[in-house]
Design goal:
With 388 residues, this protein is mainly α. It has helices at 2-27, 32-40, 48-59, 86-99, 108-115, 128-135, 138-141, 144-155, 189-212, 221-244, 246-250, 255-278, 281-292, 295-303, 310-347, 354-365, 369-379, 384-387; strands at residues 158-159, 173-174. The chain contains 18 helices and two strands. Strands 1-2 form a two-stranded antiparallel sheet. Helix 9 (189-212) packs antiparallel against helix 14 (295-303), helix 12 runs antiparallel to helix 14 and helix 16 packs antiparallel against helix 17 (369-379). The longest helix is centred in the C-terminal third of the chain and has 38 residues, at 310-347. The radius of gyration is 29 Å and the shape is flat. The model is unreliable at 63-70 and 82-115 (pLDDT under 50).
Length: 388
């Protein structure tokens, strides 16, 4: 069973590498304009009208999901097939099952095909370059022809928004200085990082000034500016989420830190409002204590700009893998901790309470091994030291 699963994983990796190689060789045959078109055009999602028509056809008894009008398949046929939503398929399956109780059931292969969800749906709204980043296609992204497009996007030679207006649709094209909107340069990643650095530096300065010159009884000008910075940061993150989509946004390592900044800021604002409204000094103190936790997210987020360097940037994937490995082994550590806690509590039932033993074991598990040997004799003269 294990060997079969391993073979499946290796087969999937081989197919993925083959796809990367085919895609890379295909890009070598394209011109600069075609490269931008193929790599940076977003995958279209199903429109509301299509979903509504699919739902009506399924619920009316038509079991064929979004079949094309013709069975002919050629080079013009779409690669991404838009099926009806999964909940719509389930409704149709329930209706079909009720209507076919007396006349027999449908073929099992057809039933399985109806229940299968379209694997391309999570990638709707992403372009090919973003799909490659989410899927971890490193060999494809590392190719010189792809890196050239990435560098052009970073430097603003290829832009998505021009002019910078409300009703403009996102479309990749080559930047033309003579006819382009100068404000559209605000969406260039290189310039955005410069503004982001200045924003976080000002954010951190307001944060420190706020903590060292706190006024628990009234809202100062610095506190109002800090609120404005928090609101603008939350709005910017929301705009980035809606622009990039959930899958591409969650693939960014620092998005978790950004959410931590926003969550801690909201908790501080709520606690601060309650403390001022009720005149409760204790709640106000808790509010500033919550604000102190903001540094856990804000300081590393400012230092995250060093990840643009090739050396520090290579450490981010290592940190992600270490975090995943820690989460995988955490249940085993918890089980071992509970086993030792039960044993030591029973051995020292007349000397050490459960709460005290819990803290002792937590300190031992976090590296204070000498503390365990100091209390080993108090736990049990016979078994204490060997178990420690």
């Amino acid at each position: 069973m294990i060997s079969t699963e391993t073979d499946d994983i290796l087969l999937g990796e081989s197919r993925g590498l083959a796809c990367e190689m085919v895609a890379w060789q295909f890009l070598n045959c394209l011109s600069q304009w075609e490269l931008i078109d193929y790599l940076l055009t977003e995958i279209p999602g199903a429109t509301k009208a299509q979903l509504h028509s699919d739902e009506e056809s399924i619920l009316s008894g038509n079991h064929t999901l979004a079949e094309p009008s013709s069975n002919r398949v050629d080079e013009y046929s779409p690669l991404l097939h838009q099926d009806a939503p999964l909940n719509t398929q389930r409704k149709a399956a329930e209706t079909t099952e009720e209507s076919s109780l007396g006349s027999g059931s449908l073929d099992s292969s057809v039933q399985e095909q109806k229940y299968m969800d379209d694997p391309t749906k999570p990638f709707s709204g992403l372009n090919a370059l973003e799909v490659a980043a989410v899927a971890g296609a490193k060999k494809f992204i590392s190719q010189g022809i792809v890196q050239k497009i990435v560098q052009d996007i970073w430097n603003g030679d290829v832009v998505f928004w021009d002019p910078l207006a409300v009703h403009v649709k996102k479309k990749a094209h080559v930047y033309n200085k003579r006819i382009a909107d100068p404000y559209s340069r605000l969406r260039v990643p290189k310039y955005q990082k410069i503004f982001q650095s200045a924003f976080f530096a000002a954010f951190l300065a307001l944060y420190y000034f706020m903590l060292y010159n706190r006024d628990p009884h009234k809202i100062t000008l610095v506190e109002i500016l800090l609120y404005l910075w928090l609101v603008s940061f939350a709005y910017d993150e929301f705009s980035e989420f809606t622009d990039a989509g959930f899958m591409f946004y969650s693939n960014d390592f620092w998005s978790l830190w950004d959410l931590g900044i926003i969550g801690t800021g909201i908790a501080f604002i709520v606690a601060r409002a309650i403390g001022l409204t009720k005149g409760d000094d204790y709640v106000t103190k808790i509010a500033f204590d919550i604000l102190s936790l903001e540094a856990l997210f804000l300081v590393p987020r400012l230092c995250s700009l060093m990840s643009l360097n090739s050396y520090f940037g290579s450490l981010i994937p290592v940190l992600k893998e270490m975090t995943k490995a820690f989460i995988k082994f955490l249940p085993i550590v918890v089980v071992l901790y509970l086993g030792f806690l039960t044993t030591f509590t029973m051995l020292a039932r007349d000397k050490i309470t459960l709460t005290e033993m819990s803290w002792i074991l937590i300190k031992v598990f976090f590296g204070s091994t000498y503390l365990g040997f100091d209390v080993a004799a108090d736990i049990s003269e016979v078994f204490g030291t060997p178990l420690m």
